[in-house]
């Protein structure tokens, strides 16, 4: 009996928390599927007049979608610089004597410690 | 071919893991490192493997100084207490992995893997993943990997400690057989004296970061150089008794004496420590000349064929291992007997001054 | 303290077990007598931990009942069963001191402070940790932590039973001796019902009054260490108990004699004509090498010096066997036979022991 | 230690040094430069010594912003850490529902800051927002653009919405590392639910919680985008936190000198608090090591 109550308690807590997390996101989604008139015209829990027009605008008007293109360019550049930096960090490790450690483990199957540490 | 450690020591932080030690291991031998947990077995192995660099001393392999040489440039295989295999590879690929790294041909690899798997009785499991195997099989897989590597130095760090008692017994009997022909240097760390005896070869006893003795296993067992070695190499632990030599007599307990005959007559007067192994205490069938001790029985443990008796002799705690199932009353005074031929005498500092005479006969 | 009764108990981890093979623990009826020390012995996966967890209430059996002193506790939660359990790996409360750790079970039950104080000191003395009482448990060595776990298990005097789940796994051999002896003397002193799960035969035999041997989810024999050694009820018991285990050989048995590969062996008792696969079992302790052509032909393969005795590995009619010889004994060069001690032979039919005529059950 | 050292490795870190120089050192030095100079425009600067620092230390405006900032960080820590732990404790331990919860919980963490601001800006509006509309419906006079308390509540709830999951996920990872035997032993010891939490779960979570607190503190201390999108720092200056104030000063008013001095001090505060955390954490580790 007690155990079942416990599960219900946890489920309730998680349910409420997830609801709290998802409601604002739902609302955003809800808005995105409404027409401008509907949004400003009155309050409704669901889009009465479901439309994808907003998405069409976003994906066709350059003044909107260039933002995404710029983001992508930025991310690609960031990633390439990270890779670049990644190589550098390897060298960093080597200086501290970590280099040996990293490769030694591989060579001698010395992952016991790693497992222990985990 | 040999591996020589010369004045090697290891200090990490404020703790000395290994005090200055020398050790020489010959090719084709099984070498046991015997000692309790954190006595330095693993530290010593890591030095041998090159995973750690010693603070002092040098390590020679085949006469060549390898101190500071990287692990991957040495020919070393290692097996751990945990069953360590690549979880995403099949048993076959696990065993083959070191050979693939060496760039062997597929045919060579296949032959070697099949052979190792046969030896380790893994034949039927080659296509499985390690985690689908029992603990014993997983460790066999790790051993097989060490085997195919054709390493000059194979380090086994308590490889059987995590296995069931019976499996341990079986693998323990197999390991020396399997590695006999390989012709490498084997180093095997264990906490159990019986394991050392079963593996044979040579044994180095370790205690608090020092190698107390190194030699052929039966010799170290029968002629321990000091009380510490004797204690490490005895399970149940060796029993001790305080003695005083005075003239022609050895005094102990409450005014009991025994004649200082044979080798003992040459000892200078003074306090000593006598040691004897639990299996040499007798309850009945004792020979002539046996010494009688009046002890108090605290606990008995029956193994089915033998009985362990835990005794109190004037505050010294002793264990006896006697034949047969003995129904004894606890708390009573129990006379036990000991043949003087089984007594080792150590000086107060612990060094052996006289080995038991029975040992010389065997 | 209580008598613990297992009534028709069985457990399967599957939701709807079909065949007997699906059961991790096969049907079992047994009384654990109040105040006795039991060992549950078996290899890993034999169901011994399952059984222990059912007794402690950490697991609900799929069928059957558990009774403590006749009271059904099958559905009672762990806390109501009033038992103590020590686990394989040390469980200590890191942020508490050693003293608080030991006092924890008593405090939770609202014992008064002066009693707790006295009892904790007593237990600390027992496990040899008086000096560390004021220290935080965090950072102690594994064996010290396990000693605390043992101490916490023993701190309550009123428990129905004390359960141990391979408690000495992480302990050094030398320390094992000490702790096991401690447990044993505790049992003598307080007379708790104790159940000790282990795969280590030495631990099981030395600890327990009665050993319960389990194999493949089934209890194969319950007996004193002596019974298990001398009269193993199943070839598995013969193999599992003793080091090395019992030697087993195929034979044809009729009455007081058996034929092993053409050689006649005296059995010392009348076994009539057992059916099924008939085998002889004899322990290495009861075999002897000979060079006078009596007994079974044998070839010495290897001799292992274990210190207090020697283990001789033999090949007897194509099969590997072991015998035990006394420390210092020599093996004659022309040894080619092995003799069996007649009254130490057991006869097995399809792995189960056949009782000779006239043996009381 | 005569470890095998490969000197060539030094060359491998040159790119990193260059990158760090460009991305961190040069901007920082620019700021330092601004902080000790004054200008009357036309790109002409002259030495002003520590004048700006002195001015900022006596600026009521900065102290107010710092006060608001500290209160804000304290409140969100006081809510997010216990709530995160509470959520973690109630999460399913394994199976489908565990993954289900993990995925849904990480959703807010994946949303860009300004989108979070937008979401709440809409969500709280009385006319078209779900939250605002319903609050108005049940008779609560809620308006985050006018009422200071409402503005604060909105900004705090938004941060809780955005970041509690991070704390919960970290705490959950800590909880997952506790072996079953601990819970079983606790049952046998008849430990209360509170005792299980206090003596088993909390100690095991302590490490990750320290990291969570540090992350949340630093992040909230530097918060900018979300409140800026929702309230724009208002009503009045009620939700003008340090970085919002800094941007107003530097870009809105073009007071580069004071803003630079301000940002250096801001930096020092964050650094010193990190140092305190670091010290506490290493002390804890040391204690563990004994």
- Summarize the largest interface: chains and residue counts: B-C, 41 and 45 residues
Give me the CATH architecture of the largest domain in chain B, please: 3-Layer(aba) Sandwich
Q: Give the overall average pLDDT of chain D.
A: 82
Using the alpha-carbon principal axes, give the shape of chain D.
Answer: globular
Fill in the CATH topology of the largest domain in chain B: Rossmann fold
The first-level CATH class of the largest domain in chain B is given as Alpha Beta
The CATH topology label of chain D is MetI-like fold
In total, the number of domains of chain B comes to 2
Total strands of chain B? 21
Walkthrough of the structure:
Chain A has six helices and no strands. Chain A is 81% helix and 0% strand. Chain A folds into two domains: 1-60; 62-118. Chain B has helices at residues 41-49, 91-102, 106-119, 135-148, 165-180, 193-199, 217-222, 227-232, 357-361; strands at residues 2-12, 15-26, 30-34, 56-61, 64-65, 76-79, 153-157, 185-190, 202-207, 210-216, 239-246, 249-252, 256-259, 270-276, 281-282, 291-302, 306-313, 316-323, 333-338, 344-347, 352-354. Chain B has nine helices and 21 strands. Chain B starts with a strand and ends with a helix. A six-stranded mixed beta sheet of chain B has the order 6-7-8-3-9-10, with helices on both faces. In chain B, strands 13-12-11-14-20-21 form a six-stranded antiparallel beta sheet. By secondary structure, chain B is of the alpha+beta class. The radius of gyration of chain B is 24 Å and the shape is globular. Chain C has helices at residues 48-56, 78-81, 98-108, 113-127, 142-154, 173-190, 201-207, 225-230, 235-240; strands spanning 4-11, 25-32, 37-41, 63-68, 71-72, 83-86, 161-165, 194-198, 210-215, 218-223, 247-250, 252-254, 257-260, 263-266, 278-282, 287-290, 296-305, 309-316, 319-326, 337-340, 346-349, 352-354. In chain C, helix 6 (173-190) links the parallel strand 7 and strand 8. Chain D has a single domain (61-289), classed as MetI-like fold, CATH 1.10.3720.10. Chain D has a two-stranded antiparallel sheet. The longest helix of chain D is centred in the C-terminal third of the chain and has 34 residues, at 256-289. Chain D has helices at 9-12, 14-35, 51-57, 60-90, 96-106, 113-123, 130-137, 148-176, 180-188, 193-221, 225-230, 242-252, 256-289, and strands at residues 37-39, 45-47. Chain D is an all-alpha fold. The mean pLDDT of chain D is 82. Chain D contains 13 helices and two strands; from the N terminus they run ααββααααααααααα. Chains in contact: A-B, A-D, B-C, B-D, C-D.
């Amino acid at each position: 009996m007690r155990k079942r109550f416990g599960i219900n308690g946890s489920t309730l807590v998680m349910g409420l928390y997830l609801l709290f997390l998802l409601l604002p996101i739902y609302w955003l989604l809800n808005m995105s599927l409404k027409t401008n008139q509907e949004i400003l015209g009155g309050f409704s829990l669901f889009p009465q007049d479901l439309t994808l027009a907003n998405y069409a605008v976003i994906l066709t008007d350059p003044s909107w979608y260039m933002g995404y293109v710029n983001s992508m360019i930025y991310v690609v550049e960031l990633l390439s610089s990270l890779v670049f930096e990644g190589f550098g960090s390897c060298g960093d490790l080597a200086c501290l004597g970590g280099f040996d450690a990293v490769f030694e483990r591989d060579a001698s199957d010395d992952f016991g410690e790693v497992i222990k540490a985990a | 071919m040999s591996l020589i450690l010369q004045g090697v020591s290891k200090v990490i932080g404020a703790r000395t893991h290994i005090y200055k030690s020398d050790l020489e291991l010959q090719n084709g031998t099984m070498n046991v490192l015997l000692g309790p947990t954190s006595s330095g077995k693993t530290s010593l192995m890591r030095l041998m493997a090159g995973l750690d660099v010693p603070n002092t001393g040098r390590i020679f392999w085949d006469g060549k100084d390898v101190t500071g040489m990287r692990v991957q440039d040495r020919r070393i295989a290692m097996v751990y207490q945990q069953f360590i295999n690549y979880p995403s590879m099949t048993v076959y690929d696990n065993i083959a992995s070191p050979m693939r790294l060496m760039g062997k041909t597929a045919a060579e690899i296949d032959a070697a893997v099949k052979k190792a798997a046969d030896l380790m009785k893994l034949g039927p499991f080659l296509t499985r993943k390690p985690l689908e195997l029992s603990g014993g099989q997983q460790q066999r897989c790790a051993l097989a990997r060490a085997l195919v590597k054709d390493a000059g130095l194979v380090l086994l760090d308590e490889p059987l400690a995590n296995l069931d008692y019976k499996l341990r017994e079986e693998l323990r009997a197999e390991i020396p057989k399997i590695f006999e022909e390989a012709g490498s240097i084997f180093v095997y760390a264990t906490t159990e004296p019986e394991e050392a005896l079963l593996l044979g070869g040579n044994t180095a006893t370790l205690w608090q970061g020092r190698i107390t003795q190194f030699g052929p296993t039966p010799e170290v067992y029968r002629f321990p150089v000091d009380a510490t070695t004797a204690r490490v190499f005895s399970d149940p632990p060796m029993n001790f008794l305080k003695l005083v030599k005075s003239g022609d007599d050895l005094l102990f307990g409450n005014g009991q004496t025994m004649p200082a005959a044979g080798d003992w007559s040459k000892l200078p007067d003074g306090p000593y420590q006598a040691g004897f192994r639990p299996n040499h205490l007798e309850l009945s069938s004792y020979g002539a000349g046996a010494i009688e001790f009046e002890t108090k029985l605290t606990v008995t443990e029956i193994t089915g064929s033998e009985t362990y008796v835990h005794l109190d002799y004037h505050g010294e705690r002793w264990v006896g291992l006697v034949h047969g199932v003995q129904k004894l009353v606890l708390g009573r005074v129990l006379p036990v007997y000991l043949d003087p031929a089984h007594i080792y005498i150590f000086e107060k500092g612990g060094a052996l001054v006289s080995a038991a005479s029975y040992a010389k006969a065997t | 303290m209580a008598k613990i009764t297992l009534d028709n108990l069985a457990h399967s981890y599957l939701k709807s077990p079909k065949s007997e093979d699906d059961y991790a623990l096969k049907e079992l009826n047994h009384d654990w007598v109040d105040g006795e020390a039991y060992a549950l012995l078996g290899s890993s996966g034999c169901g011994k931990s399952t059984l222990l967890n059912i007794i402690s209430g950490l697991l609900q059996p799929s069928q059957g009942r558990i009774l403590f002193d006749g009271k059904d506790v099958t559905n009672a939660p762990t806390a109501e069963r009033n038992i103590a359990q020590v686990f394989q790996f040390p469980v200590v409360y890191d942020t508490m001191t050693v003293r608080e750790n030991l006092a924890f079970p008593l405090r939770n039950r609202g014992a008064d402070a002066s009693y707790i104080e006295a009892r904790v000191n007593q237990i600390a003395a027992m496990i040899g940790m008086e000096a560390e009482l004021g220290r935080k448990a965090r950072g102690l060595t594994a064996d010290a932590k396990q000693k605390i776990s043992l101490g916490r298990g023993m701190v309550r005097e009123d428990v129905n039973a004390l359960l141990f789940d391979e408690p000495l796994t992480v302990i050094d051999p030398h320390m094992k001796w000490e702790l096991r002896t401690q447990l044993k003397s505790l049992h003598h002193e307080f007379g708790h019902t104790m159940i000790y799960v282990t795969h280590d035969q030495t631990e099981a035999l030395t600890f327990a009054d009665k050993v319960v041997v389990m194999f493949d989810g089934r209890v194969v024999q319950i007996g004193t260490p002596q019974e298990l050694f001398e009269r193993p009820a199943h070839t598995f018991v013969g193999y599992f108990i003793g080091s090395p285990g019992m030697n087993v050989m195929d034979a044809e048995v009729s009455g007081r004699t058996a034929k092993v590969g053409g050689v006649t062996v005296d059995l010392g008792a009348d076994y009539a004509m057992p059916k099924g696969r008939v085998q002889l079992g004899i322990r290495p302790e009861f075999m002897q090498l000979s060079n006078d052509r009596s007994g079974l032909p044998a070839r010495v393969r290897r001799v292992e010096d274990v210190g207090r005795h020697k283990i001789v590995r033999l090949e007897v009619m194509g099969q590997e066997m072991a015998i035990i010889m006394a420390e210092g004994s020599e093996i004659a060069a022309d040894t080619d036979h092995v003799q069996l001690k007649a009254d130490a032979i057991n006869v097995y039919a399809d792995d189960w022991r056949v009782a000779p005529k006239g043996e009381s059950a | 230690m005569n470890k095998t050292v490969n000197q060539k490795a030094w060359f491998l870190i040159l790119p990193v040094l260059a990158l760090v120089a460009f991305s961190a050192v040069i901007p920082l030095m620019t700021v330092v430069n601004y902080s000790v100079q004054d200008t009357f425009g036309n790109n002409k600067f002259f030495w002003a010594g520590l004048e700006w620092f002195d001015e900022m230390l006596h600026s009521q405006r900065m102290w107010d912003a710092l006060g608001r900032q500290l209160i804000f960080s304290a409140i969100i820590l006081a809510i997010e850490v216990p709530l995160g732990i509470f959520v973690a404790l109630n999460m399913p331990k394994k199976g489908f529902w565990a993954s289900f919860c993990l995925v849904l919980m990480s959703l807010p963490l994946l949303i860009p800051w300004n989108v979070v601001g937008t979401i709440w800006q809409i969500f709280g509006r009385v006319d078209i927002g779900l939250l605002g509309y319903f609050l108005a419906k049940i008779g609560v006079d809620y308006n985050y653009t006018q009422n200071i308390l409402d503005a604060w509540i909105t900004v705090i709830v938004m941060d809780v919405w955005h970041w509690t999951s991070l704390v919960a996920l970290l705490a959950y990872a800590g909880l997952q590392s506790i072996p079953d035997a601990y819970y079983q032993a606790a049952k046998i010891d008849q430990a209360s639910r509170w005792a299980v939490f206090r003596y088993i779960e909390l100690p095991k979570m302590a490490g990750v919680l320290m990291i969570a607190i540090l992350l949340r503190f630093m992040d909230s201390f530097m918060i900018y985008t979300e409140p800026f999108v929702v309230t724009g720092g208002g009503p009045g200056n009620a939700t003008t936190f340090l970085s919002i104030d800094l941007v107003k000063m530097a870009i809105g008013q073009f007071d580069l000198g004071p803003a630079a001095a301000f940002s250096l001090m801001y930096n020092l505060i964050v650094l010193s608090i990190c140092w305190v955390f670091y010290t506490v954490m290493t002390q804890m580790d040391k204690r563990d090591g004994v």
